[in-house]
Amino acid sequence: MSAELNPAEKKRQAVIEAATKLFRELVGEHIDAATKDAADAFIEADDEDATAPVVKLAVVVSFPPLDDAPEVGVSLAWSVRRKHEATVVVDPNQTLLPLRKEDLK
Question: Which residue range forms the structural domain that includes residue 26?
Answer without folding.
Answer: 7-84
